[in-house]
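ok new one. same drill as before - structure tokens go in, u give me an amino acid for every spot. 487 of them this time. try not to just spam alanines like last time pls lmao
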């Protein structure tokens, strides 16, 4: 999985038909990154279809829709989403530059305010006054040491000279672990050990919009546990231990091609502004891994899973006794795909991070500031590192699963910072046309647990392989922590 940059822009992906026009305004080729990463995921679907016995289908990606999916694919109809950002999250002038505080999680907010010696209810004005007296790197280090999240704005050159920037630049885009051999599946036997009669998911009413080539109304499409070239992940169980954007984007994509996705969150975790976006196609449960019962239940779920996708930092699962080596020993056939923020080597390999922080660290926000002539950090128009890494994660999981069918298992690792390495050499897209307006009729009606809304049609089209789900977007903790056939 490699991207090619030609004359400052991403080259059109091989064997992928491009449709649509327009580009996101940015100092970098963000729309090109959207198209390239989505094409990688679509090609992985097509290759899996070929493994399941069909001719490898044609893949197409729409530029405008790819750009739009890198924002929000769902818009409420008659109600409003809660704010995505905490009230004190954002960029602040420090004594010697700029720093971004990421405070969406309550414990991250508490850590930042404690380091600033502020009360838990402090507002932006007080935070700004406190931040202004701190040297940026000193405040960043203090917040990180207190288990919070912050990043000073660095230039691209400063990042490349930084030990972490140098470490990430030396990593592959997708790091594949060593191979291990397990018994292969038969040609179409993936999921056969838990065949069920075709049936609709109880209570599900709203699938994703049909795509060209779909052969059945999606409102009556059955859920089957037998994979076919038209439903290549049917019967494949995906255990999702990811949060925020990149990982949930990956598992949402897998759900649209038939995977049974079970997302697990800890008690109390909430991100209401993103729930309708990130829970489509998934059953969402809660477990407390700090308790023996919760950890035992996780182990049982892993025993029934085919693919495990998690966003834990490199040392976090190790402390739970779930290191790569331990999982490979106990569950040798399990496909294990991991992603993090700052990479898997270097002095920051254990650092918490998010898209907006990585953009500050690696020079993206600084470059945008200069390109647009602004007097403050100017990030990408969307959280492109998250979304691109999400689709690349989905592609890695699909490629790994295809190899698993033939008896080879390999783990994969990706990171937001490594995805940024692909974006940084690009410049503004040469396709300077504005993105077309996505009128309401271009979106498809969808019900959610919070109310009705409209969902964008798919940006990726795999001929003869419609992307759909009968599992509506529902809240975290709305399902039982069990696989469907075990409930």
């Amino acid at each position: 999985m490699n991207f090619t940059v030609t004359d400052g822009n991403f080259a059109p992906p091989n064997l992928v038909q491009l449709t649509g026009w327009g580009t996101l305004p940015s100092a970098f080729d963000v729309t090109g990154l959207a198209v390239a990463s989505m094409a990688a995921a679509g090609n992985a679907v097509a290759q899996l279809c070929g493994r399941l016995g069909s001719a490898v289908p044609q893949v197409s990606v729409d530029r405008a829709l790819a750009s739009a999916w890198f924002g929000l694919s769902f818009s409420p109809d008659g109600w409003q989403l809660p704010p995505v950002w905490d009230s004190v999250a954002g960029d602040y002038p420090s004594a010697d530059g700029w720093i971004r505080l990421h405070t969406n999680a309550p414990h991250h907010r508490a850590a930042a305010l404690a380091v600033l010696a502020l009360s838990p209810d402090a507002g932006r004005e007080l935070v700004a006054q406190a931040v202004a007296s701190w040297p940026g790197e000193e405040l960043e280090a203090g917040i990180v040491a207190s288990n919070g999240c912050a990043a000073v704005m660095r230039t691209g050159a400063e990042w490349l000279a930084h030990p972490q920037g140098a470490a990430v630049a030396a990593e592959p885009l997708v790091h594949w672990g060593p191979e291990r051999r397990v018994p292969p599946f038969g040609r179409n036997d993936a999921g056969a050990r838990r065949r069920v009669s075709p049936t609709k998911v109880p209570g599900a009413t709203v699938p994703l919009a049909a795509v060209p080539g779909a052969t059945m109304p999606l409102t009556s499409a059955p859920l089957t546990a037998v994979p076919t070239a038209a439903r290549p992940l049917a019967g494949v169980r995906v255990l999702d231990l990811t949060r925020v954007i990149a990982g949930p984007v990956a598992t949402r994509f897998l759900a649209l091609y038939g995977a049974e996705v079970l997302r697990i969150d800890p008690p109390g975790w909430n991100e209401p502004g993103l729930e309708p976006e990130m829970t489509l196609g998934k059953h969402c449960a809660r477990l407390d891994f700090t308790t023996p019962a919760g950890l035992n239940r996780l182990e049982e779920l892993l025993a029934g899973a085919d693919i495990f996708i998690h966003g834990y930092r490199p040392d976090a699962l190790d402390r739970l006794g779930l290191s790569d080596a331990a999982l490979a020993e106990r569950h040798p056939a399990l496909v294990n795909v991991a992603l993090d923020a700052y990479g898997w080597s270097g002095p920051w390999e254990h650092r918490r991070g998010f898209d907006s922080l990585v953009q500050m660290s690696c020079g993206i926000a600084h470059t945008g500031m200069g390109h647009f002539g602004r007097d403050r950090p100017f990030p990408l128009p969307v959280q492109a590192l998250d979304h691109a890494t999400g689709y690349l994660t989905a592609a890695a999981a699909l490629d790994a699963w295809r190899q698993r069918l033939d008896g080879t298992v390999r783990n994969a690792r990706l990171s937001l910072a490594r995805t940024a390495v692909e974006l940084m050499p690009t410049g503004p897209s040469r396709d300077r046309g504005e993105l077309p307006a996505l009128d309401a009729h271009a979106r498809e009606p969808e019900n959610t647990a919070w109310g009705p809304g409209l969902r964008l049609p798919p940006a990726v089209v795999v001929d003869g392989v419609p992307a759909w789900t009968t599992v509506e977007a529902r809240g975290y903790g709305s399902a039982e922590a069990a696989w469907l056939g075990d409930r």
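The domain at 5-83+169-486 is CATH 3.40.50.10540 (Rossmann fold). and btw The mean pLDDT is 90.
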